[in-house]
Every structure is written in structure tokens, then in C-alpha cells.
Write a structure and sequence with these properties.
By secondary structure, the chain is mainly β. It is built from one helix and 57 strands. The longest helix is centred in the N-terminal third of the chain and has 4 residues, at 12-15. This is Carbohydrate-binding protein.
């Protein structure tokens, strides 16, 4: 038996690392609205309007009816792994009690969280069974279950280590030794298991205080049996015969009569599912196939029932790429089905990125989460790989109207960002949904990142003296797209593709279009005239990409940086030679500069990952002002790289960016994430890095999952923080009197 618990509940602040006093900063999310995969929706059966959702990398949220928005529940958490939520369970009788199962992958920490005040404070219990909140199979569930007749008893179906049980509200856990499947063990790197996909105590099989007698569990691992039943409160178990052959049990739902519905699929998803089925079993475990006719390719996963005896059930398809995913709806236990996509409309004006250019938004994909409102069967919600939709008109006989239900949910991954020297506040490069020009931070922006269409935008740059000129690059969204670099001359409203010719490196016999591989960073000079494509042999164009020439003096893999003031100046790092290179002729030729003050090793031949911010940054304060991160130390140059001075201050820098100088100063404000005196946090320096002030609090941790940071050159004090799953955050200093 494994028993581990914390003695008493703790606040989110206490969960975070001990830290010093934070300066007065207020933080907000820039509004995009959703933007990521929501694998689970849980509607409270204890209170009308109360709901929870879980995300794979951005934590959990609670719907607040009075505020009319989702409230993030884990922003005070400082453990990265805990932002991947494997399962949620809401107490069926006490609306204040909720549990989370957290752990992003099998090689990261896992814990069970319990709150008695709807997520304002948490007790966190580390557990020995691994989770996979961001692994394949994260749409299975729900794995965490509360016995509705004795709510101090919980069950958790793990991926790798069998079934677990707690009889003291999650404070201590023991493995259920008599469950027939004890787990497949921890997988190798890059692998995973589905494990026990769901656990469902039957509320009709017990009495208050004594617990449910009948408990179902579904298995999503290979084997002869995928559905198990206990009729003695979980002490002994047997396999249930008659299920579809060769399919895994991926989702389950049970109604007040004890009728069980099970969704089956041939893989754990969210990708790779090609077949599925839906079965209904009565309380004697007699089952029959009720799969909707016309399911076609793909499978089913999202599943919900109205928890009464009406037989109202809905199931969502997954990986049905043609004709596309849908939700099937039945009022008679699956005897007859209605395809909701055939008479649905979606209003995505609040999150316009969901609309396909020239068309309305489609029904969505990866429908793993689906939920009826237990107090109003006319309300149905489902989640996709990019949003959550809700309808209040399911009971009507006409068109079903869906709207995004994402107010407060920001789940994007911000890979790159740029705050130009004039114009809009910020431009973002995102994972999966490309990115945006954010003219307003409190409204979801219009999508403009087309021509070329990119899935991930890995790099962004702007011309320091003509900030309406922008370049972006990343990975192709469409297989037939023939460019991955885009140029805009109107601040990002419109774009045109830049196609870089094939090149032949010394070890190749045939030329190759390296720019199509998503690795080519794009750079633009201060006047907007010179563009550099950072393919293995960097090429420059000075005519809008019509003709390209090789930049002389750069080694393979170089990634130059443009001066933000002088259009003739560019800089690069030669990691193999441990030296700084500079150009004063518009990037035509590069030559070494003295580089006095830098350490002997600049990175040992580092090759930058395509989604990693480059660590040489030019300031917009004056020509030749550069910042360079070597290891965990920042160095500053004011003479184009000839001489450098370490910033000092003791901060171990992880990410950094520059902003407008403080009034009366001539050095850029520096914003950074990193560790100082044992505290990992967000910091600001106004004196070149000699002194640092913390600008986030213990309640503003966001899992410490950060991708990129930058100040605003137009507005002193403003900082933009790109997170890995909590969207774009921006902070401003609190003014006196506020």
C-alpha cells in the first residue's frame, strides 16, 4: 500500500516556490479565446451552471456564472507538469469540492489535487502512478471518479499501473490488488499506454454512506477484455463479455437507471483512430451495439448522457476527416440518432480565427469532450482541438445555434512575439493556429496570417525604422503551400510569400528547398529593404524576394540579427569559432569584430532549435546596442559587438527581452525569466542588468511554462510573456493611487 498526503490544505501561493516581495505589476491575458485542445468537460450535478474543463498543457478552469467567464484554477502553480490535467472529478453533492489529477507525461511528477472552495485553495498529494495529461490518450476518461454514495471514496484508473483507490478524500492512495489488469509498466521514452480509461460507480447500486456496489471500469490497452465490473464495491472484479472485438474502451457514461454507455475505438487518439462503436449495457451487463448508422471512417470518443432515466445520449466522432466530425444525438437510448451537423450553425464572431477564410467555421475535430447540462437537457457542449462550443437550443426543432464557450480560456502556445517600434502593441507567432496582429488586447483578433498559411509561426521580425514591414516564418499548414516565409508591408494586414531558391551545400550533389522545412528563420533590416532567409547558407534579398544572393563571411547555419536603427548593420554569432560577426553593408559581407569581454566559449557550436528564441537581440535604443545571452549570463554591447560587459546582478537567465527605457535612462529595460537567490520568477532591470526586481507574485506562476518574453519599445513598463499553454500574458506596472 502506498500512502502519501499533505497534512492540511494549502493555498496556491503556498504551492509556489518561496519568493521575495514582488513589485506592483498587474497581469492580464491578451484575448484570443480557447485556441487549444480541451480533452475533458465536467458539469456539476450539485449546482446549476457550475462546470469545469481540463486542458492538456494549460491547467484547469471553472465556469463562473456570475462573472460570465472561465476562471483559471492553477495560475499559482509553479510545477510545470501539473499544468497537464489528466482528469477532473466534481463532487456530485457538494458543489464546493472538486478534484484534479495532474501530470503532463510519464516521466514528470504527478499529483491529485483537492479543493473544498471550488479551486481557490488546494491540497496537493504527489502520487507514484504516472499520468499523461499531454500524451496520446489524453481524451480518454474520466479516469478519476467519486463514489456518489460515499464521496470520501475515490478511484483512479492509471495509464501504466492499474487501478487505485482512496477512502479519505484523496489524502492517501492504495493500489487495488485484485483488479484483473495491474498495468503494463512505465513505457519507453516517446511511448505511452491508454491504461484504465474510465471508472464509473453506479449511483443506483448503493445507498448514502455505504458506497456503490456496482463499479465499471474500461480498459484502453491491448487485451482480450476491455470492460470490467465489480459488484461488491471494488473488492473483486470480472471481465464483461460481448463487447466489440478488437476495440478499446475509451469513454463511459452512466445514467440514473444504471444503464452504461461505452464508446469504443481502435486507438487511444486523438489521432490515429480509424474505427469505433457505441454500446449500451443494462445493470445486468447485457449489452448491445447502438452505433449510429453512417458513422463511416474514424471513431467515437466524446460521450455524455442526461443523468436521469430518459435515455438522452450524445456521442462525438473523432478522426472522421471526411465528411468531417459531428455529434450524434438520441432521445431513446440509441435506437434512433440525429446527426447534429446537418442542422447546425456556428457564430464565431467572438473568436474569428475559427472561421475558414471565405466560409463559416466547421464542426471541429478531436471531439473528445462532450457534456449535457444535467439541469437543462437543452444545453449541450463539446470541445475540439481549438475551442469549446455550447448550444442552448438543442431542444428546439429548428437550426441548432452554437457559439464558442471560451470566455477566460486562453490555451495557446506562444512560440514567437514581436512588439514593433510603432503601431500595434504586439504580434504573436503561435503553435497550431499560426498567430495574430493584436491591435486590441481585449478582443480576439482577426486572422490575417495567410499567403502563406502556416501552422506554427516560429520566427517574427520587424523593420526597426519602418515597423509596418514584417517577416514571419514557420511550418506549412497546407501540404501544397509552396512557401514558409511571408512578407508584409502594411503591418501584417496582408502578406505575400517569399520563395527561396534551392541551394546545394558542399556535401550535396543536388540543390534543395530548405525554406520549405519550417526551419528557416526570417530577418528584415531596419529600413525594410533587406530580407535574410536563414537556411543553411543564409541568403539575402533587397528587392522584395525576387533575387537572392549568398551573404559572404557566414558559416553554415548562421542566424543573423538586424540592427533596429541602422539599416546597414547586421550581426551574427559564429559558435564554432567563438566570435561575433558584423556587417556594415546591408548583410552583403560579414567580418569578425573584437568581442572583448565575452567568455571563451559562446555555446560550443550550438544549433538553435526552430522554436527557440535567438539569444542575440538588438535594442531599438541606439545603433550598435546589443544583448547576448551566453549560458545563464547576459552581456551588453553599445559598440556593435566590439566590447561587451556582463549584466551582473546574479540572475540566472532563461529567457530575456528588451523594452522602452525608464524615463531619464538611455539603456533598454530588460525583462527576463530566470532564477535569483533560489527563486524562479519574472524579473525586470532598468539599469542594464545590475539590479533586478521581481514583477510576478506567487499567484502568478502559470506553471513557469514560458516560451518567449519581450518588453514594448513604445510604452515603458509593458512586458509581453508568451506561455506554453496559457496564451499571451501582458503586464503593466501599477501606477500610484491605483
Amino acid at each position: 500500500m502506498f500512502a502519501l498526503g499533505l497534512a492540511s490544505p494549502v493555498s496556491q501561493a503556498a504551492l509556489a516556490q518561496a519568493a521575495g516581495q514582488a513589485s506592483g505589476y498587474v497581469w492580464h491575458n491578451a484575448v484570443i479565446g480557447g485556441g487549444g485542445y480541451v480533452p475533458g468537460i465536467v458539469m456539476s450535478q450539485a449546482e446549476r451552471g457550475l462546470a469545469y474543463v481540463r486542458t492538456d498543457i494549460g491547467g484547469a478552469y471553472r465556469w463562473d456564472v456570475r462573472a460570465g467567464r472561465w476562471i483559471p484554477l492553477q495560475d499559482g502553480n509553479a510545477v510545470s507538469s501539473y499544468m497537464g490535467v489528466e482528469s477532473i472529478a466534481a463532487d456530485p453533492h457538494d458543489p464546493d469540492v472538486v478534484y484534479l489529477a495532474t501530470g503532463i507525461s510519464s516521466d514528470q511528477p504527478a499529483a491529485i489535487w483537492r479543493s473544498a472552495d471550488r479551486g481557490a485553495h488546494w491540497r496537493v498529494v504527489p502520487v507514484p502512478f504516472a499520468m499523461g495529461g499531454n500524451e496520446p490518450g489524453r481524451g480518454l476518461g474520466e479516469r478519476l471518479a467519486i463514489d456518489p454514495n460515499r464521496t470520501s471514496t475515490l478511484f483512479f484508473g492509471s495509464r501504466h499501473d492499474g487501478l487505485w483507490r482512496s477512502d479519505d478524500s484523496g489524502a492517501n492512495w492504495r493500489k487495488v490488488s485484485r483488479f484483473p489488469v495491474q498495468g503494463l509498466g512505465r513505457p519507453g521514452r516517446g511511448e505511452t499506454h491508454g491504461g484504465i480509461a474510465f471508472v464509473l460507480p453506479d449511483p443506483a447500486s448503493g445507498s448514502p454512506g455505504k458506497g456503490a456496489r456496482r463499479i465499471w471500469a474500461g480498459l484502453a490497452d491491448p487485451g482480450a477484455t476491455h470492460l470490467f465490473l465489480s459488484e461488491d464495491g471494488g473488492e473483486t472484479w470480472r471481465g464483461v463479455a460481448g463487447a466489440p472485438s478488437g476495440l478499446l474502451a475509451v469513454r463511459g457514461a452512466i445514467d440514473a437507471a444504471g444503464t452504461l454507455y461505452v464508446a469504443y475505438a481502435d486507438a487511444i487518439g486523438p489521432n490515429g483512430i480509424s474505427a469505433g462503436a457505441l454500446w449500451r449495457l443494462d445493470n445486468r451487463a447485457a449489452g448491445r451495439d447502438i452505433t449510429p448508422q453512417g458513422l463511416g471512417s474514424g471513431g467515437v470518443m466524446g460521450l455524455s448522457v442526461v443523468p436521469d432515466r430518459s435515455g438522452t445520449v450524445a456521442v462525438g466522432t473523432i478522426d472522421r476527416w471526411r465528411p468531417g466530425d459531428t455529434v450524434w444525438f438520441s432521445r431513446d437510448g440509441g435506437a434512433h440518432w440525429d446527426d447534429l451537423d446537418k442542422h447546425s450553425r456556428r457564430d464565431v464572431s467572438a473568436t474569428p480565427f475559427l472561421a475558414v477564410p471565405g466560409n463559416e467555421a466547421d464542426f471541429g475535430h478531436w471531439i473528445s469532450a462532450l457534456a449535457f447540462d444535467p439541469f437543462d437537457p437543452g444545453v449541450l457542449t463539446y470541445a475540439t482541438g481549438a475551442t469549446i462550443y455550447r448550444t442552448d437550443t438543442l431542444a428546439s426543432s429548428g437550426t441548432i445555434s452554437w457559439r464558442p464557450w471560451t470566455q477566460g480560456i486562453e490555451e495557446t502556445v506562444v512560440i514567437s512575439l514581436a512588439s514593433p517600434t510603432a503601431g500595434v502593441p504586439v504580434i504573436t507567432g503561435l503553435g497550431d493556429i499560426s498567430g495574430f496582429v493584436h491591435a486590441e488586447l481585449d478582443r480576439s483578433p482577426q486572422p490575417t496570417f495567410f499567403n502563406p498559411a502556416l501552422a506554427n509561426t516560429n520566427t517574427l521580425d520587424f523593420a526597426g525604422q519602418r515597423p509596418e514591414v514584417l517577416v514571419r516564418s514557420g511550418s506549412r499548414l497546407l501540404h501544397g503551400e509552396n512557401a514558409t516565409i511571408g512578407l508584409s508591408v502594411d503591418g501584417g494586414r496582408t502578406w505575400r510569400p517569399l520563395r527561396v531558391p534551392a541551394i546545394r551545400t558542399p556535401d550535396q550533389a543536388v540543390g534543395r528547398r530548405y525554406d520549405l522545412e519550417g526551419e528557416a528563420a526570417a530577418v528584415v533590416g531596419a529600413d525594410g529593404e533587406t530580407v535574410i532567409a536563414c537556411i543553411p547558407v543564409p541568403l539575402i534579398a533587397r528587392d522584395g524576394g525576387k533575387t537572392w544572393a549568398q551573404a559572404q563571411g557566414l558559416d553554415l547555419g548562421a542566424r543573423p540579427v538586424a540592427d533596429k536603427v541602422d539599416p546597414e548593420r547586421f550581426y551574427s554569432v559564429d559558435f564554432e569559432g567563438n566570435r561575433i560577426l558584423a556587417s556594415r553593408d546591408g548583410a552583403r559581407t560579414f567580418a569578425p569584430v573584437a568581442g572583448k569581454g565575452l567568455p571563451d566559449g559562446l555555446g560550443g557550436g550550438s544549433i538553435w532549435w526552430r522554436e527557440q528564441p535567438y539569444k542575440l537581440v538588438a535594442s531599438s535604443v541606439a545603433a550598435g546596442h546589443l544583448w547576448f545571452q551566453v549560458g545563464e549570463t547576459l552581456y551588453h554591447s553599445t559598440d556593435g559587438g566590439e566590447s561587451w560587459a556582463p549584466s551582473g546582478g546574479g540572475l540566472k537567465v532563461e529567457l530575456f527581452g528588451l523594452g522602452r527605457p525608464a524615463p531619464g535612462r538611455d539603456v533598454a529595460a530588460v525583462y527576463a525569466t530566470g532564477e535569483l537567490d533560489g527563486v524562479r520568477a519574472i524579473w525586470r532591470s532598468l539599469d542594464g542588468g545590475r539590479n533586478w526586481t521581481r514583477i510576478n507574485s506567487d499567484d502568478q506562476q502559470w506553471g513557469l511554462r514560458f516560451r518567449v518574453i519581450s518588453g514594448d519599445p513604445k510604452r515603458f513598463g509593458r512586458v509581453y510573456l508568451g506561455t506554453d499553454g496559457r496564451g499571451l500574458l501582458y503586464g503593466d506596472p501599477v501606477m500610484a493611487g491605483q
